[in-house]
Amino acid sequence: MMNPDSVAEFLGGVPLLQRLPSSSIRKIAEIVKLEHYDEGEFVIRNGESKGVYFILQGEAEVCGNSEEDIRPEFILKRYDYFGTGAPTSEQQADVIASSKLTCLLLPSEHCSLLQPKSIWNADEKQGTCAPVESILHLDPIEVNLFQGITLPSAPKFGKMFGGQFIGHALAAASKTVDCLKIVHHLQAYFLLVGDYHIPVIYEVHRLRDGKSFATRRVDAIQKGTIVFTLLASFQKKEKGFEHQEVVMPPAPSPSTLLSLEELRERRIIDPRLPRSYRNKVAAAEHVPWPIEIRFCDPSSSTNQIKSPPRVRYWFKAKGKLTDDQALHRCVVAYASDLMFVGVSANPHRQRDLKISVLSLNHTMWFHRHFKADEWLLFVIESPSASAARGLVSGQMFNQKGELVVTVVQEGLLRVGRTPQTAIRAKY
Fold first, then answer.
1. d(Cα 272, Cα 274) in Å, to the nearest integer?
2. Which end of the chain is more exposed for a tag (fewer CB within 10 A), N or C?
3. Which GO molecular function annotation, any one, does this entry have (predicted)?
């Protein structure tokens, strides 16, 4: 008899199940039955309907083919699955144990757990999840292939938002690893400008699966072209040495600060800003962001006034997120690109000067667990800008002062140019 934790750990290694919400895997771990078979014994016969089998130990043969010999692709091993109820067209054939065989059986009446409405929450009801959780939803196509779309309510900025690429790609990678392994590092490259009018295919490459670590590469594809790529490393939780030298800087409580919506209203009547800019802000269609942002210094909210290359703001997801650390890290990855590389343009801003800012690369290190629907302080500074490139680094702290994430990004800074919405080279 296996304990549920050991069962959940095994199920987390089954590629079919990795795309499920972690809550679904835990439920399946409580439901599955342990089945033992001797060599030569029938596991399931053609036409029978018992459920889905996951091979824990041993091997099995799929029989009933026109060829007399058993070809290699019809030998089933550890982590393979078969039976009725799987979301693929399984063989209508006999399955026989070719050695001593141990399987976990998910009975047919519970196979609906394999088809959740969301990759994050098996119990999701329409319209009840946080806005950013809906934005970060992906549709599984194959085990290593996902599709993402840009929702009407999602930020766009005239092109596909870079944070959406990061969040979607990390979500795709997270849905191909054991749910006990959580991302600790990612490196991303923005190759081409994305078109938010068409879906994006996220293709995951399984580079390594170890006992403690796993590595994935994700290519974002539009019209057959790779427009974005991400490399991510995942680690199973373990105890080790800990220290933190950096101290969270003093910051006012987020409850005392204005929201972006309130700051927008103030900008419209701010006499320091050009009338043309204020009229443009007032006339523009306002689409609320799925992330709540509150600047520690309200003057940071305008791009018309020269300011130091540093910013501090509190942020969190609007609404309540599903309790899944993988989701919370995807949300922070998404939010990290909202107001980041533009800080490197702050010393060069002036009235009516257009500065084109495009992300080139993005790196994140996740140090500690956190909740993305609770306030996090993002401390950003730009140490340098040169050769039309700006560099920014940022540290995220929880309200206890613990460093939870470090971020570094390089972006393209140009005067008087705006990015094209079509898919073209960024340079």
1. 7
2. N
3. fatty acyl-CoA hydrolase activity
The residue that leads in pLDDT, 89 or 216, is 216
The beta-strand segments (E) located in 143-282 are 145-148, 181-190, 200-209, 213-222, 225-236
What is the per-residue pLDDT across 22-45, written as a single tens digit (0 to 9) for each? 999 999 999 999 999 999 999 998
Closest to 184 measured CA to CA, from 140, 228, 235, 142: 235
Are β-strands 139-142 and 145-148 bridged in parallel, bridged antiparallel, or unpaired?
antiparallel
DSSP 114: G
Whole-angstrom distance, CA of residue 247 vs CA of residue 113: 45
Residue type, 208: R
The pLDDT tens digits for 143-162 are 999 999 999 989 888 889 99
Span 178-200, pLDDT tens digits = 999 999 999 999 999 999 999 99
Q: Considering the chain, what is the average pLDDT of its residues?
A: 88
**Whether the Cβ atoms of residue 9 and residue 54 lie closer than 8 Å to each other:** no
Residue type, 115: Q
Instruction: Enter the pTM of the model.
Output: 0.88
pLDDT score of 50: 86
The b/e string for 174-205 (b: 16+ C-beta within 10 A; e otherwise) is bbbbbbbbbbeebebebbbbbbbeeebbbbbe
Could you tell me the CA-to-CA distances from 23 to 101, 131, 132, 376 in Å, in that order?
A: 28, 20, 19, 25
User: What does the block give as tokens for 144?
Assistant: 């290593």
Alpha-carbon span 176 to 335, nearest angstrom: 22
Q: For residues 58 and 101, is the Cβ–Cβ distance under 8 A? A: yes
Distances (CA, A) of 250 to 29, 253, 296, 400: 45, 10, 10, 12
CB 149 within 8 A of CB 158: no
Confidence of residue 251 (pLDDT cuts 50, 70, 90): very high
**CA-wise closest residue to 410 among 386, 392, 384, 383:** 392
Residues 6+ apart with CB under 8 A from 164: 135, 148, 150, 154, 155, 334
Burial 280-311 (b: 16+ CB within 10 A, else e): ebeeeeeeebbbbbbbbeeebbbbbeebebbb
Q: What is the end-to-end Cα distance of the chain in Å, rounded?
A: 60
Residue 333 near residue 307, CB atoms below 8 Å:
no
Active-site residues: which are they?
Answer: 337, 359, 409
The residue among 16, 52, 77 whose CA lies nearest residue 44 is: 52
Q: Which two tokens stand for residue 204?
A: 């995951």
